[in-house]
Design brief:
Structural class: mainly alpha
Length: 99
């Protein structure tokens, strides 16, 4: 099997931890930069990275007026996901949360 893009390695590590294993004993995750590149028919491309400043620059390449909307979107994501933990990481028998 070839390489796969994993944008949340902590989720993969959580699956292994739930099984009492360490992900690094079974696989090697290598950071990609950019995470991926989207090509358009007109020859332009968009590089998706994990860096806020670089992402804003990519958005601005297509429309500088969209940068502020991107910032609001990212702020909304951070607000809506803060403090959440996937329920599969722990189980009732381990004393962890169930919801």
């Amino acid at each position: 099997m070839g390489p796969s893009l994993i944008t949340a390695p902590d989720l993969i590590e959580g699956v292994f931890a739930a099984a009492g294993r360490r992900a690094e004993d079974y696989l090697r995750m290598v950071p990609l930069d950019p995470f991926y590149r989207i090509f358009f028919d007109d020859g332009r491309y968009f590089d998706y990275t994990g860096d806020q400043g670089r992402m804003e620059a990519e958005v601005a390449k297509f429309n500088p007026d969209d940068v502020e909307g991107y910032r609001r979107f990212m702020a909304g994501i951070k607000t809506s996901t803060s403090g959440r933990s996937p329920t599969w990481r722990t189980s009732p028998s381990s004393g962890g949360p169930t919801s």
